[in-house]
Amino acid sequence: SLWYETKPFNISVSLVIPGFIHSESYKNTKQTQMSQFSMENSWEAYHFHYKNMRHFICRLMRLSTTTPEKGAKKILRLMQKRRPPLRYL
């Protein structure tokens, strides 16, 4: 909606969709008592999510070839475009 609102004023808006970035940031996440409870109890609705997603995301982040620096350079190039796309992977 921001794109539609700013278009008449010749202001560009882009959605940056970075995907996974190779960093150690996932190590800074904290688990709540409820997420720990869900991991330990297979009958909980989010059991499989908490039990499997953390390892899956960690693996994808380690396998990614995009570093924070590469991502920042791509965003800078996007900002310098005369007509940037609405969505930018």
Task: Name some characteristics of this structure.
two-stranded parallel ribbon, mainly alpha, 47% helix, 89 residues, single chain
Task: Compute the number of helices.
Answer: 4
Beginning-to-end CA distance, first to last residue? 19 Å
Can you give the mean pLDDT?
87
Proportion in helices: 40-55%
Give the structural class: mainly alpha
What sort of overall outline do the alpha carbons produce when their principal axes are compared?
Answer: elongated
Please give the order of strands in the largest beta sheet. 1-2
Oligomer: single chain
Gyration radius (Cα, Å) is 19 Å
- Element-level helix/strand string: HEHHHE
How big a fraction of the residues is strand? under 5%
User: Main sheet?
Assistant: 2 strands, parallel
**Beta-strand segment tally:** 2
Low-confidence stretches: none
